[in-house]
UniProtKB/TrEMBL annotation, chains A, B:
Domain Acetyl-CoA hydrolase/transferase C-terminal residue range list: 328-469
Family: Belongs to the acetyl-CoA hydrolase/transferase family.
Keywords: Transferase
Name by which UniProt lists this protein: Succinyl-CoA:acetate CoA-transferase
Zinc-finger found in the keyword field: no
Residues forming the catalytic site: 293 (5-glutamyl coenzyme a thioester intermediate)
Keyword hit for Protein transport: no
Molecular functions per Gene Ontology: acetate CoA-transferase activity; acetyl-CoA hydrolase activity
Length: 506, 506
């Protein structure tokens, strides 16, 4: 088939064939100041041509949009949009260095949301409605309905809510990559329905995204792979974190609190979470399942090892090797996978019902178990809270992992007297893990937590000073002893000297 | 009937008649160091004789227990237990000055939990199991099952989980006070069921608490009313808070975001929440409903005014006048009420499904919308988080109210650069209200939030200094501008001088 034949073969709804346009033409259809809802969740299934074309348009023309996605985008899209001043507002998540700079200098208004809540807030009218949707699809059926690719995110809602829709058909994704999607849109208050998911395998929606074809104003073809995940090899610290956590699970099994299947796993994105999940391959685990947001390489390694039987998520974000492994062997994985909208993958209702074991990465945590997932130095946004709060609050076990200390000569301690920003409160954190050890906080009062966190999790270079803080704070009394005059001394010292260590030790 | 006849008439299960004992005898059956689960939720339906008798026993004997309740207790029970060193651990809530002192000097290990989560943590084995239960009931049926009184709290779970049970029959509560309870116990993981509540009126359990009669080791009679709620008359500030919030609801109705029935209301305990609810009587509202924890006088005033049609909670905590109004007119209220276990009244699943409007009281909040509900000065526990987190996280609207400033000469500002303890993060707070005004934070970035909070909510005596902090923090940049060196200056000044105002202004 010619390129054109291949393209037309992906559109079974004739009316759309007249609407095929270029990415540039599509980008020109986006009204200035529009609220745009775009597919894409941690680099998977994002708009690879239209949003980049809009960034190029903004380089030449004074136009900007408010952009809502599932989560972060691939390529350099967020960077290019930010660099060209094309973003008014951005939500609910991002992970790009250029955009981050624009957020931190207040050029872009970033609204950092629990990933389950964007649809809630849109549907309730708490935030301005999505006018314009851009959704990546693999193909279009006879009804004009679209088949999503490697993520669902908020796409089903955007398609239902937007007045105008651009479909971006990615011919890199085979049309056979289908059957794993489960799309639905929640009913409005006061008639919200039960989410009838009782196991990780339960399907409640449709494989395609339903939409009103008259809203489709353009179909754009692209042929670009998802930006691959960059997974660095586990290092000494991530391996130690993984071992500490796996030992905990083995002990929970030994004491009868969990079976060898544990309970459905959720894991945040990144190398620590990936190392922990990969570690399950060698342990006494069997018939593991996931109910998570992002399915990474480790999920497919667990399938291949026979340790995992099913995984539910909102996106597949993997390395290029793993991507081809999935596509080439799709029939073997197909029955073990579901991709869901993020208001379902991250639904508090389902997370509590299934009893999820949630493993997420902290930027820093404090001696009482409060966790900072978003800010550096109390004021600078890093990436955003993502789904960590959706899971941590409602999980069977809420686990946060981080290195005890990092950077040159361990100049940053990630365990501190007080976190400089709280994303997960002491009420919502069960287990903390660093390369130094693990603190099981369940059922402990704040002072008991401080003892076990300082003893088990703090890097040796900081242990004396943090213990000294805690001992002196106790003299002032209180349920949660603190010395407010000194609570941020580590952060202040870092901002002044580039190290959290006292000057003589640097 | 004689007193004895009246008592025996309340026990339809003959085996228990042999088990009638005194409160002192029952207190002597509680093993030293036992984990005791006791009924009682915000002073309603608590153990009025056995726990007080245990406190007396502890005055003479070296015994102590870990005590888990629904929420706070009535009479001076928590105070007497604390004063007599009878508590090892206490959870999930308390509101007593004497106990608070013991918590803050670390004599009692207090675990401050989301009220929905105590049963979760017990059932998962995260905390030590309940061995001994003490549950207030109005009567006992032919199967030995018990009928709770003015609260349910965690009682149904305690009865199912404990090895030994003392039933405390309160003859002050008429046996006709029945039919409004809806008891159930969640199934264990991995077979947790859907909570099939789709409207505030839905019943999913049984009117009685099921238990194994062989576990009942004593039946104690009491004849003591619930400690009445003390409701002070609305003052200038609570009235202003109420007016500001009611104006917001009227505007939401006018713009079509809500109907005159709003959505089911939850309100925290206390005079501000009560004033707000009472304020609904005079507004353009109709067919209001509640899905809350504590039903206060205002609920019954709303019934009587015809403005409210149904209320679901976990306890009825009212003034003595209102208590008698309910008992004397029970038939008129009976079909409008359900009392539920607190893992159901506060279930994240149900709160999000019903779309609750949650109104809770803050101790303080900061310019970015973080809320402190528990600690004074960063270290001293006040009462606990209660159910505010269960509701705030999952509500349709999460609203926090407080006075802009309080105490002599408004020496305490309740709006601050940074809260000294975070219980509800910026991600979970939609609307903040003080007597000065209302800040609608929906969809705003942190800097936008700061502008509206400083402009609308801060007391005039503190406005210049807080604005100055914010303006100087902005010069340092960041998504959430802060000056960590000064973030707690208000708290530090208060602890040093007794006022948050600079010395010259005191």
């Amino acid at each position: 088939m010619t390129k054109e034949d291949i393209q037309l073969d992906r559109i079974k709804f004739d009316d759309y064939k007249k609407k095929i346009i270029s990415a540039e033409e599509a980008a020109n259809l986006i009204p200035n100041k529009a609220v745009v809802g775009a597919s894409g969740f941690t680099k998977a299934g994002d708009s690879k041509s239209v949003l980049p074309a809009f960034a190029q348009r903004a380089a030449k023309e004074d136009v900007a949009i408010s952009l809502i996605t599932g989560a972060s985008l691939g390529q350099t899209t967020d960077a290019d949009l930010a660099a060209n001043h094309a973003l008014i507002r951005r939500m609910p998540f991002q992970a790009d260095a250029v955009l981050r700079k624009s957020i931190n200098n207040s050029e872009v208004k970033y609204v950092d949301q629990h990933l389950s809540e964007t649809i809630e807030q849109l549907q309730c009218g708490h935030i301005a409605p999505v006018e314009f949707a851009i959704i990546e699809a693999s193909h279009i059926d006879e009804n004009g309905f679209i088949y999503p690719t490697t993520s669902i995110g908020n796409s089903a809602y955007f398609a239902a809510a937007a007045d105008k829709i651009i479909i971006e058909i990615n011919t890199q994704v085979p049309t056979s990559f289908s059957g794993i999607h489960d799309n639905c849109v929640p009913s409005k208050y006061p008639n919200r329905e039960i989410i009838p998911i009782q196991t990780v395998k339960d399907r409640i929606g449709e494989n395609f995204i339903r939409l009103d074809p008259s809203k489709v104003i353009g179909v754009v073809f692209t042929n670009i792979l998802d930006t691959p995940a960059q997974l660095s090899e586990p290092d000494v610290k991530t391996t130690a974190i993984s071992k500490n956590l796996l030992k905990f699970f083995v002990e929970e099994i030994e004491k009868g609190a969990l079976t060898k299947s544990l309970l459905p796993l959720q894991a945040g994105i990144g190398k620590v979470a990936n190392a922990v999940l990969t570690g399950f391959i060698d342990g006494p685990f069997e018939n593991l399942t996931m109910y998570s947001e992002v399915l990474q390489d480790s999920t497919f390694d667990l399938f291949d090892s026979g340790k995992m039987t099913f995984a539910s998520g909102s996106s597949i974000t993997v390395t290029e090797d793993c991507y081809h492994r999935i596509i080439d062997n799709f029939e073997t994985y197909k029955d073990k996978l579901i991709l869901r909208p993020q208001n379902i993958s991250n639904a508090p209702e389902v997370i509590r019902r299934l009893g999820i074991i949630a493993i997420n990465t902290a930027i820093e945590f404090d001696i009482y178990g409060n966790v900072n997932s978003t800010h550096i130095g109390g004021n600078k946004m890093m990436n955003g809270i993502g789904g960590s709060g959706d899971f941590a609050r409602n999980a069977y076990l809420s686990i946060f992992v981080t290195q005890a200390a990092s950077k040159n000569n361990n100049s940053i301690s990630h365990v501190l007297p007080m976190v400089s920003h709280v994303d997960h409160t002491e009420h919502d954190v069960d287990v903390l893990v660093t390369d130094q050890g693990l603190a099981d906080l369940r059922g402990l009062s704040p002072r008991e937590r401080a003892e076990v966190i300082i003893e088990n999790c703090v890097h040796p270079d900081y242990k004396n000073e943090i213990r000294d803080y805690y001992e002196r704070a106790k003299e002032k009394g209180g349920h949660t002893p603190h010395i407010l005059e000194e609570a941020f001394n580590f952060h202040i010292r870092y901002s002044e000297t580039g190290s959290m260590k006292p000057q003589q030790e640097k």
